[in-house]
Design a protein that fits this description.
Low-confidence stretches: 243-267
Distance between the termini: 58 Å
Strand order of the largest sheet: 1-2-3-4-5-6
Mean pLDDT: 83
Number of helices: 12
Largest sheet: 6 strands, mixed
Number of strands: 12
Radius of gyration: 25 Å
CATH class of the largest domain: Alpha Beta
Length: about 375
């Protein structure tokens, strides 16, 4: 059988999982499913110094064995525990026991990543976080019966992503976003009490205020609304974003209306200029090339919105409807990867087009275009 792509492997594995009679035990899953995926992800499954089954992390020191250990240059990278299909789907206690078992290996032998799978469900963990249990270190879960984007799996488990640090950065970003969401939800009861005491405030405004005071960061209106609505019973209507009101002069009102009518005002004067520096949200960044402005602005916004960054796909060419973002760099002209994320951005633009797209990214996520200041010479 010739080498298959990851997409081909996932498609065939999904069909076999749906058939229900292919993977009968752990050995079937380990060899015919997990090893198959690892091979498609760039791991040398025939090299026991890279993909080691029944792996003993420290010979003669511990009798326990990890089902599969992934190593790069003799350094532990990923420990994988394999269970029969459906092993923990009914009894949560079994998953907790498996997490405890895997966590002991990860801590003792300093592997940064853990994976538990029954062939169908794949759960990925980052070891080096302050969370008290492995369950709280979960940063990604896949259901192989669902149709998944192979690039998602590639940026988490491929040898390339593990080796160049992409996996760790992605895991840290997702766990940070999860912790942020937890902190926001934690203060919802306090926000409700605040509104009862000061009824002129909306629940969203109260939540924004309390998060800022306790945790020191700003919550967008969209984040606050989403967090509050997540806790509302399905038989009750969700809340809507509050209407922002303020006292302004007639001149300012006219200015706001002009901005509202033309939110994506075209910039001018950047063609043929050398970009040297830009300021965003009060922070300054030195750049040497025009495209670095786009890539850095996109990376900053991604770090603020890792869970909904897909909104950038709404941004397309006004006239030709051309796409500016993709999961696959080959889809774009002059593609550049956005940080260590799985997103790519087109960078073939004039100076005006570059600044214009950077400001459209800001607008898409609710920020003011005026927050971006570009220096040229």
């Amino acid at each position: 059988m010739p080498d298959e792509t990851l997409k081909e492997a996932l498609s065939d594995i999904r069909a076999k999982l749906l058939a229900g009679d292919f993977y009968q035990n752990e050995e079937h899953i380990r060899f015919s499913l997990v090893a198959r995926v690892l091979k498609a992800l760039g791991w040398d499954i025939w090299n026991p110094k890279e993909v080691s089954t029944e792996y003993v992390a420290v010979p003669n020191e511990d009798k326990g064995k990890v089902d599969i250990g992934l190593l790069i240059n003799n350094r532990h990278q990923v420990f994988i525990e394999i269970k029969p299909i459906g092993y923990w789907s009914t009894y949560h206690k079994l998953l907790t026991e498996t997490e405890t078992q895997l966590e002991n290996y990860l801590r003792k032998f300093s592997a940064p990543f853990g994976l538990i799978t029954d062939g169908r469900i794949w759960r990925f963990y980052l070891t080096y976080t302050p969370a008290s249990s492995l369950g709280e270190k979960l940063f990604q879960e896949f259901d192989f019966i669902a149709v998944i984007d192979e690039s998602d799996l590639f940026f988490i488990l491929s040898k390339e992503a593990i080796e160049d640090g992409s996996t760790r950065k992605l895991a840290e970003e997702r766990l940070k976003a999860t912790e942020r969401s937890r902190q926001i939800r934690q203060l919802i009861p306090d926000a409700e009490n605040f509104v009862k005491k000061y009824p002129t405030n909306s629940p969203v405004q109260a939540l924004q205020k309390l998060v800022r005071e306790k945790f020191g960061y700003d919550v967008t209106i969209e984040e606050a609304v989403e967090a509050i609505n997540a806790g509302i019973p399905k038989d009750q209507p969700p809340i809507s974003p509050p209407i922002q009101t303020r006292t302004i002069s007639s001149n300012q009102e006219n200015k706001d209306e002009q901005t509202k009518e033309k939110p994506l005002k075209k910039d001018g004067g950047y063609i043929g200029k050398n970009f040297t520096e830009f300021t965003l949200f009060g922070e300054s960044y030195i750049i040497n090339r025009q495209y670095e402005l786009l890539v850095k602005v996109a990376e900053i916004i991604f770090n603020k919105h890792p869970n909904d960054f897909e909104k950038v796909f709404r941004i397309r060419g006004h006239r030709d409807n051309i796409t500016y973002f993709s999961y696959n760099g080959r889809d774009l002209e002059a593609p550049k990867r956005i940080g260590n994320s799985r997103f790519w951005i087109r960078t073939k633009f004039t100076g005006d087009g570059t600044v214009g797209l950077a400001k459209r990214i800001l607008s898409e996520f609710g920020y003011r275009q005026e927050d971006l200041i570009v220096q040229t010479k």
